[in-house]
């Protein structure tokens, strides 16, 4: 072997080693196994094309198993570099245990509002530990064909809303609204926390409740229950035993005219409904009133504090905070809306209708999710039951509100 050849071989080996040393593989932990194809075919290739040397693997776990599986991996030191974050307390606990890194210093964090970041921050807002990805928005989806057939206009005030429901009921062709109380959570999520923000003025009321400056027995917190009690007459026969899938089927089969909704329904409804659909935000008390929408922070992504690839992971997280990612993600999953402050042009018309409300209404999040459901009784779960009871007529609005307030005050110091 000549000296020249040996030198060339050595140089080749060293250069090859240097090249491979630069290759980093990032693994993403997630519960969104339904999104595997979208990540593999669309999102990851876009990032890798701009960041040679960084490979990304999306490795989801079944949703119901995610929290337990992730905690086990973190404890064993085998978790991925990037952690998909559920909102509020579950992720806050991971941060408090030292499993999630503080990402407050990322430049892309400037692209998110305080409301967008609130689900992944410490209570004092000093640290933000996940980059917000998407929220879901509440409102009402309606059958456009049914409205046209009955000569109905989209309601903007509560009086108009109930006039529309009365007209649908009087005609008899359609069930006015598809919602049941069997599973309970819909009554709170698509009922109380859908219409409620217009009464308690969104963030103003929600934050006042956390501070102990308002109580659940105050008029603005009882009033949504009073409105829910009126829904009973419009939900159709047997709504008490009606499950969530039953309600979805009633609407998509064209048997109900209105569906109290979360935007996550969009993809499924698009695939199943054979009629044109529209959406409207929760009606306000009077024309011209400020409107409030539940624009609920739902999913984010953080950095495993023990990741050996923190620098590469932070590059990925900066990209997740970009307008490019926001547009790609929101259009790949219509109904999961970007939390980025840069407006995203939605290709799906129903999704675009939902997200357009951000331009005219004030955004808030579900009132029970931050801090107020850490104790026993759990305010979120109790609100499910109370909302269902009020609609069924087995509990009065005032009694439901008092029960929730007494439960919260039993363990939450600012409410005592």
Describe the secondary-structure layout.
Blueprint: H1 3-22, E1 24-30, H2 36-50, E2 54-60, H3 66-76, E3 82-85, H4 89-96, H5 114-117, E4 131-143, H6 144-150, H7 158-171, E5 175-177, H8 185-195, H9 197-200, H10 203-211, H11 219-231, H12 244-252, E6 256-262, H13 266-272, E7 277-280, E8 291-303, H14 310-320, H15 323-332, E9 337-338, H16 349-356, E10 361-364, H17 379-392, H18 397-409
Parallel strand pairs: 1-2, 1-3, 5-6, 8-10
Antiparallel strand pairs: 3-8, 4-6, 4-7, 4-8, 4-9
Helix pairs in contact: 8-17, 11-17, 11-18, 17-18
Structure description:
It is a single chain. The chain has 416 residues and is α/β, with parallel strands linked by helices. The protein has two domains: 2-134 and 297-345, Periplasmic binding protein-like II (D-Maltodextrin-Binding Protein, domain 2); 137-295 and 363-415, Periplasmic binding protein-like II (D-Maltodextrin-Binding Protein, domain 2, 3-Layer(aba) Sandwich), CATH 3.40.190.10. It is built from 18 helices and ten strands. Strands 1, 2, 3, 4, 5, 6, 7, 8, 9 and 10 form a ten-stranded mixed β-sheet that branches. Helix 2 links the parallel strand 1 (24-30) and strand 2 (54-60). Helix 8 (185-195) packs across helix 17, helix 11 crosses helix 17 (379-392) and helix 11 (219-231) packs across helix 18 (397-409). The chain is globular. The termini are far apart. The relative contact order is 0.16. The model is unreliable at 1-21 (pLDDT under 50).
């Amino acid at each position: 072997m000549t000296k020249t050849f040996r030198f060339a071989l050595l140089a080749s080996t060293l250069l090859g080693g240097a090249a491979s040393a630069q290759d980093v593989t990032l693994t993403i932990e997630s519960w969104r196994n339904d999104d595997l194809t979208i990540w593999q075919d669309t999102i990851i290739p876009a990032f890798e094309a701009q960041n040679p040397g960084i490979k990304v693997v999306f490795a989801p776990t079944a949703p119901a198993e995610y929290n337990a599986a992730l905690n086990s991996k973190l404890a064993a030191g085998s978790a991925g570099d990037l952690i998909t974050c559920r909102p509020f307390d579950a992720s806050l606990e991971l941060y408090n245990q030292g499993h999630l890194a503080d990402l407050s210093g990322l430049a892309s964090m400037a692209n998110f509002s305080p409301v967008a970041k609130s689900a992944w921050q410490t209570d004092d807002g000093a640290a933000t530990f996940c980059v917000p990805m998407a929220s879901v928005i509440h409102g009402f989806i309606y059958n456009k064909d049914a409205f046209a057939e009955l000569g109905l206009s989209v309601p903007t005030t509560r009086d108009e809303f109930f006039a529309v429901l009365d007209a649908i009921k009087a005609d008899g062709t359609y069930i006015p609204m598809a919602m049941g109380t069997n599973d309970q959570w819909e009554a709170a999520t698509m009922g109380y926390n859908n219409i409620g923000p217009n009464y308690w003025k969104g963030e103003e009321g929600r934050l006042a409740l956390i501070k102990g400056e308002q109580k659940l027995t105050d008029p603005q917190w009882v009033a949504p229950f009073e409105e829910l009690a009126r829904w009973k007459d419009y939900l159709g026969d047997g709504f008490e035993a009606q499950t969530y899938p039953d309600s979805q089927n009633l609407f998509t089969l064209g048997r109900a005219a209105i569906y109290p909704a979360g935007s996550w329904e969009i993809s499924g409804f698009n695939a199943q409904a054979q009629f044109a659909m529209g959406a409207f935000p929760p009606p306000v008390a009077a024309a011209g009133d400020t409107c409030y929408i539940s624009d609920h922070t739902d999913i984010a992504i953080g950095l495993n504090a023990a990741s050996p690839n923190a620098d590469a992971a932070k590059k990925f997280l900066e990209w997740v905070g970009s307008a490019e990612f926001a547009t790609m993600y929101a259009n790949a999953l219509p109904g999961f809306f970007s939390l980025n402050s840069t407006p995203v042009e939605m290709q799906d018309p129903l999704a675009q209708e939902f997200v357009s409300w951000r331009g005219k209404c004030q955004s808030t999040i579900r009132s029970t999710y931050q801090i107020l459901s850490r104790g026993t009784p759990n305010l979120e779960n109790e609100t499910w039951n109370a909302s269902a009871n009020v609609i069924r007529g087995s509990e009065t609005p005032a009694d439901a509100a008092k029960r929730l307030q007494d439960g919260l005050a039993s363990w939450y110091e600012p409410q005592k």
